[in-house]
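Continuing the series of single-chain predictions for the mutant panel. This is the parent chain; the variants come on the following pages.
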Amino acid sequence: MSNDTALFLGQFLRAPAMIGALAPSSRRLASAVCAPIPERGEPTVVELGPGTGAFTTEIQQRLAGRGHHLAVEVNELMARLLAERFPTVDVAHADAARLGELLGERGLRQADVVVSGLPWAAFPEELQRELLEAVTEAMGLGAAFTTFSYIHAIPLSSARRFRGLLAERFEEVVAGRTVWRNTPPAFVFHARRPRRSLRS
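Parent structure:
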């Protein structure tokens, strides 16, 4: 068992609803989730629930020094570890519900890409709505949002509810192919164009 897997397992046992995974995501899943990051320009990329940095590594490779990478992690131990591993990443030990405030504090107008590692299926409806609203309010009209779901969570009412909320908050939601080489297997949701009628 790797150090990261041991850390994930330990934090999961302490707070399963907040961690939501027994092990870090695979490189294949990271590649699928981070696909919307543009190859040019200076994008603002927000990463929610980065954990030990599986997606962080992929985002940094794709940005190659461009733009602004804000990683928001509510778990203090993981946030500290992430900041040590990725000194060029702007790591915020904070609740993702404060995303708009966090961007404002940094003089950033909006996010161009939001990559989420949050365990949406583990959240109650009120929290799902609060976090998804914070995400869409912080996004530009042409921005992209990506997240993933584990295959075993598909039948859960909370997972079905989240998929419904995605359709409610975005004009376009596409489910990607299943990433079998992940523990457990997962598939990715790509969402674009936050619905303007729901924006303040």
